[in-house]
Amino acid sequence: MARIDVVMPQMGESIAEGTLSKWLKKVGDPVKRDEPMFEISTDKVDAEIPAPSAGVLAEILVQEGQTVAVQTVVARLETDAGAAVSAPAAPSPAPAEKAAAPAPKPAEPPKAAPAPPAPAAPAAPSAPAAPQPAARPAAAESMEERLRTKSTPLVRKMAAEHNLDIARIPGSGLAGRVTKNDIIQYLEAPPAAPAPGPAPAAERRPAADLTVGPGVRVVPGPEVEPWEGDRVEPWSRIRKLTADHMIMSRRVSAHVSSLIEVDYSRIAKLRAAKKAEYAERGVNLTFLAFIAKASADCLRKHPVLNAAVQGESTIYRRDINLGVAVALDWGLIVPVIRHADELSLLGVARAIQDVADRARAKKLSPDEVQKGTFTITNPGVFGTVVGLPILNQPQSAILAVGSIGKQPAVITTSDGTDTIAIRTRGFLGLTFDHRIVDGADSDRFLADLRKSLEEFPDSAA
Q: Which end of the chain is more exposed for a tag (fewer CB within 10 A), N or C?
């Protein structure tokens, strides 16, 4: 007879914690190996976590909605069903407490106690300066601050050595995390940051002002009171993280958008001719697949649209990894198609369908939502004429696909005569980071993309 610990998994290198969003099994339920036991939500992905072994769920240590550090024991399995039945006799006190009410679970966390402290632990090594922000009540700490302070031991050590508060340093890492380079840059130009920011921030602590960068402070919106009859629904973890990422993106990048209209008539004919053939291979051939394929090919010719900003440098990505935004009932996720420029139209169509299906089924791995270099979002599927999206940091551009439909248009025939005809048309909206992408860069990219779509070769379909 043996008990196996079930832990909060390490869902990617930069993941420090996870929220146990839902238990799929109850204490006493039999569990098969690799059968989903519970759902978690991290700042990367929602996922179902499989059982590490067959057995019976003997103990649940972390309740739904709790956020704990990775490697925290969340449950225990009895590997022998018979042993699990007799187990209550041996350790009778713990199961008895549990049977009485699930609420006492918080009282039992002498075992699970490492869970809640773990997220706060990183602040401890931060010597005298860091403990103060870490000691603030959880309610007063914003989601942005929580994410930003999940830095590496090296960063925390550097901050402690220089008596710095990580929460007040602008971060260029994932979700605003502070990196080693951020610490170095902050130390090289300390006067600019403290002057306008820290003093007012200290005075207005209750207002939770956020110092985003030297001389820049963002004040939260006004308090909003619910009225009689209103329904107040707390944000899910994915909604909080999306909000944090979007606000951070607007602060960081100089957003500019350009629009272009595309004649999809040729694509529409190719799609009609090939749709049945693709369906036989289990793939739905959509307009989005053509747009994604053409975008990947054009990005090779326009590398600044496939780039990222690092301090005062531009990183031109070698790989072309397309992020495709997928709307879920509980939020938005952007799975990534790696090396999209190396795929055929069939490969792109299959990849889009696959990641979208698995995103809705919570079957994506953390690796599949990382390292995107360019994002495509498709609001047109809901009938939106055109979209002007926010950049998916740290990428330099994002393309929005507007609705595609038949419209009257003026066309010029081969003999030079103008005539009105019914054409399949739609808009594309490109939002780009004006720090590194000029208007001419975006216009040339959009012009090439339109040409690629309007002259899409039969051989490529």
A: N
Tell me the angle at which helices 287-301 and 345-360 cross, rounded to the nearest 10 degrees: 110
For 66-78, write each residue's pLDDT tens digit: 888 888 899 998 8
Please give the domain boundaries of the chain with CATH numbers for all domains.
3-115 (2.40.50.100), 120-216 (no CATH), 254-460 (3.30.559.10)
Say how many C-beta atoms besides its own lie within 10 A of residue 111's C-beta: 12
Q: Which amino acid is at 127?
A: A
* Residue 44: φ, ψ to 5°: -115, -45
DSSP 170: P
User: What amino acid positions are annotated as catalytic residues?
Assistant: 434, 438
Amino acid at 264: Y
Q: Coil, helix or strand for 214?
A: coil
pLDDT at 322: 96
Q: At what angle do helices 287-301 and 265-280 cross, to 10 degrees?
A: 110
pLDDT of res. 203: 41
Token pair listed for 156: 């925390």
Peptide bond before residue 366 is cis, with ω within 30 degrees of 0: no
Q: CA 353, CA 263: separation in Å to the nearest integer?
A: 24
Confidence band of 284 (pLDDT split at 50, 70, 90):
very high
CA distance between the termini of the chain: 59
Residue pair 23/61 in contact (Cβ under 8 Å)? The answer is: no
pLDDT per residue over 182-229, tens digit each? 777 777 664 444 444 444 443 444 434 444 443 444 456 688 899 999
Tokens, residue 247: 């606000």
Spatial neighbors of 259 by CB under 8 A, at least 6 apart, are: 386, 427, 428, 429, 430
What's the pLDDT band for 364 if we cut at 50, 70, 90? confident
Closest Cα partner for 176 from 322, 394, 431, 383?
A: 394
* pLDDT tens-place string over residues 223-259: 889 999 999 988 877 788 888 888 899 999 999 999 9
219 vs 211: CA distance, rounded Å: 9
Q: Do strands 397-412 and 374-377 pair parallel, antiparallel, or not at all (unpaired)?
A: parallel
Element holding 425 (H helix, E strand): strand 418-433
Mean pLDDT (the chain) is 78
- Distance (Å, whole) CA 248 – CA 251: 5
Q: Measured between alpha carbons, how far is 287 from 349 in angstroms, rounded to an integer?
A: 9
